[in-house]
Specification:
The structure holds 2 protein chains of 2 kinds. Chain A has 4 helices and 5 strands; from the N terminus they run αβαβαβαββ. In chain A, strands 2-1-3-5-4 form a 5-stranded mixed beta sheet, sandwiched between helices. Chain A is globular. By secondary structure, chain A is an alpha/beta fold. By secondary structure, chain B is of the alpha+beta class. Helix content of chain B is about 30%, strand content about 15%. In chain B, a hairpin with a 5-residue loop joins β8 (about 180-185) and β9 (about 190-195). In chain B, α1 runs antiparallel to α3 (about 65-75), α7 (about 255-265) runs antiparallel to α11 and α12 (about 425-440) runs antiparallel to α13. The two termini of chain B are about 20 Å apart. The chains are: A alpha/beta, B alpha+beta. Chains A and B meet through α3 and α4 of A and loops of B.
């Protein structure tokens, strides 16, 4: 699937909406920050997605397969602090890893298994808050 | 909503309400989207009828809440399935053995109760991950190391009671063996401490394992006789230095003296680090370096002639292949050794090791890979296999990119992991037996010569990933083939050390001495300790009486 402006914006809007819906029940009014884009920069398709996202004003974070530092020094604290949703363009393994880690902090990943991003090794997914779980609860 | 087998919806609703009264609404999970998070991400039966699924999950915050949940489960006869952090992917993940069980998610029991610097131990709850303890130790300026598996995201306690392993010195790598003292919520809700912890004023709970009388800690590992809520672990003092070396043996039969000498060096404590066997000539990397091979950062380069010879030697040997290796200087076998301690001690140990190898292996060669003064800068840990330096990582999940070593990344895996004898002959024999079987069964493991890992002293363990695919029929075939490999292993005296729920019945069936007396003993214990059968029904094929004859 080709990455275009429409795709990125659609994902960003739905991520924000789903995140807000997830929080509303437990934490009252909360407007999540715009989604950030996490991409595996080993793949051209990941880099292409990030380029489009940056043009649309979204913050992008590249990583080269190993999520350790990214999670330890960034995502873990961000999720505990109720930061906004994340759009990911990663391998299924990286997504699974983040899915398991996110679960412990009250987030969940929604993946569109049919949404490929120009490379069969990559998946596109969205990370949003779990409904009813308070931020930073874990 | 799914209900546990034999439990009516109204009873189940009452039980869930009682659970919720203990933990609060926020920590009672019943929605489809929340419960789905407890699925086994690597299940070979994803979306199939055989997939093991939870009905709900409850996350207590304290040992007292765990006790209350257990008592409620008894009152309503609800099967519950405790998990620590649920990260043992490839061995079952968070999913219960008995579908319909309520997962008791212990991640909120995440306190590091104590770190004793002078006596080098810690006490932790089940929700403490390797990352948590690592960062705690670093932030407090501790000079203690952790020993962690790949990846390091799981629970110390959970990994230990699942009998997992790590990569540092021998007496810390076996995580169950390195524990000292437990606190356990029994199936009736009572709280028990093991070892010296049974003395109310205990001062040596984490210093002497067995206390007095029967030492029962083992029955709480890979079992369902209690929920472990605290566990002590011995920790390694940060060594002064680290040396990692390679021993190259040129000929096929050299594997036998290579292993014999390794055993002598390990059993004599001349080397204590993680030994790692590989074969450059056959293209099988060392266990600790697999990640680097996957990432394309390391490789055993092969030309076309080499590949052709390899294809003609499916069991790892042909005279032509051996001659090719000798002519090109490509070692048949490569043994990685590592040493921890003061550098002057390490150098003496390495000198002794070289003397022993040189005495039994003609033309053996040696090379140093890493010589480090510790501690290293944490930013440099990624240059090495972090776990061997006591640093947890998520690097295992970078697999997924196609590389020459890993051209077709899978969607998950089931670990086939039999224990075999610590001899070179056993490596040859296991490859012959499993390779023949795998070809007959069309299984994607043991299709080329495979090397075992040396996590434990005194034995080898093959840890081979059987892929989980997106095709249900293929997965079903692999599951049946996997079970047949387990049975074939049993016929040769080899058994799995750990396995996913889908294989636990088959694996325990291999442990059949004297008409399955061991399993009968497990059942006797289960009936005595957990008469209502509420706790982790079916784990390692230990079923409560009412489910024993017709296993779900």
């Amino acid at each position: 699937m080709r990455t275009d402006r429409r795709t990125v914006l659609k994902m960003a809007m739905s991520a924000s909406a789903a995140c807000a819906a997830g929080v509303a029940g437990a934490a009252g009014a909360w407007v999540p920050a715009p989604p950030r884009v996490l991409y595996d920069d080993r793949f051209e398709a990941g880099r292409a997605f990030a380029r489009v996202a940056r043009r649309e004003g979204l913050e992008t974070i590249g990583f080269s397969g190993d999520l350790t530092r990214l999670w330890r020094d960034g995502l873990r604290g961000d999720w505990a602090a109720r930061a906004g949703p994340v759009i990911g363009v990663t391998t299924p393994r990286a997504m699974l890893c983040l899915q398991q880690l996110a679960m412990d902090q009250g987030w969940r990943i929604m993946v569109d298994r049919n949404a490929r991003v120009g490379d069969p090794a990559l998946l596109r997914w969205t990370l949003v808050r779990r409904r009813g779980v308070a931020a930073g609860a874990a | 909503m799914m209900t546990p087998p034999g439990v009516s919806p109204s009873i189940f609703a009452a039980a869930l309400a009682a659970f919720e009264a203990v933990v609060g609404k926020e920590w009672m999970f019943t929605s489809e989207e929340d419960v789905a998070l407890y699925r086994d991400a690597y299940s070979p039966f994803r979306d199939e009828g055989e997939e093991r699924l939870a009905s709900a999950a409850v996350a207590p915050a304290s040992t007292e809440e765990v006790q209350q949940i257990v008592r409620i489960a008894n009152r309503y006869k609800i099967p519950i399935y405790p998990i620590s952090t649920g990260k043992n992917l490839g061995y079952g993940g968070s999913a219960p053995v008995l579908s319909g069980s309520v997962v008791v998610d212990l991640k909120r029991l995440n306190r590091i109760i104590e770190v004793n610097e002078k006596n080098a131990y810690c006490i932790v709850e089940p929700g403490v991950s390797y990352f948590d303890l690592y960062e705690h130790l670093r932030s407090t300026g501790s000079k203690l190391w952790i020993d962690c598996p790949d990846p390091g995201w799981g629970s110390l306690l959970g990994n230990a009671i699942d009998r997992g392993g790590g990569y540092t010195a021998a007496n810390y790598r076996n995580h169950f063996d390195s524990h000292c003292g437990m606190e356990v919520v029994l199936p009736d809700g009572e709280l028990m401490r093991t070892g010296m912890g049974a003395i109310p004023a205990a001062k040596t709970w984490q210093m002497y394992k067995s206390g007095c009388g029967p030492w029962i800690d083992g029955i709480f590992s890979q079992a369902n006789y209690g929920i472990v809520t605290k566990m002590g672990f011995w920790l390694m003092p940060e060594p002064e230095a680290y040396l990692r070396v390679k021993v190259h043996a040129p000929r096929y039969r050299d594997l036998v003296p290579l292993v014999e000498t390794l055993n002598y060096l390990e059993n004599s404590r001349i080397t204590s680090g993680f030994p790692d066997l590989a074969t450059p000539l056959l293209g099988y990397p060392p266990t600790g370096q697999v990640q680097l091979f996957n990432e394309g950062l390391s490789s055993y380069p092969m030309d076309e002639r080499h590949k052709a010879l390899l294809a003609g030697a499916p069991l790892g040997y042909s005279p032509e292949l051996e001659q090719y290796g000798l002519a090109k200087g490509i070692p048949y076998w490569e043994l990685w050794l590592s040493f921890y301690g003061p550098m002057e001690v390490i150098d003496a140990q390495w000198n002794a090791a070289r003397r022993h190898f040189s005495a039994v292996i003609p033309d053996v060669r040696f090379a140093e890979a890493d010589r480090l003064t510790l501690p290293i800068n944490p930013d440099d840990a990624g240059k090495y296999h972090e776990a061997e330096l006591g640093v947890p990582s998520l690097r295992a999940f970078s697999i997924g990119a196609r590389t020459a070593f890993n051209p077709t990344p899978s969607h998950g895996h089931m670990w086939f992991s039999p224990i075999v004898e610590r001899t070179g002959e056993a490596i040859f024999e296991a490859n012959r037996v499993f390779s023949e079987a795998a070809r007959r069964l069309d299984m994607p493991i043991f299709r080329s010569f495979s090397m075992p890992a040396c996590f434990w002293e005194r034995n080898f363990i093959f840890i081979l990933a059987t892929p989980v695919t997106e095709d249900a029929a293929t997965n079903r075939r692999y599951v049946e083939g996997f079970k047949e490999l387990i049975r074939i292993g049993g016929e040769h005296g080899w058994g799995e050390y750990r396995t996913a729920p889908v294989f636990q019945e088959t694996v325990m069936g291999v442990y059949s001495f004297n008409d399955h007396i061991l399993s009968k003993f497990h059942a006797t214990l289960k009936d005595a300790i957990d008469p209502n059968g509420i706790l982790a029904a079916g784990r390692y094929d230990i079923w409560p009486r009412h489910l024993r004859k017709a296993r779900p």
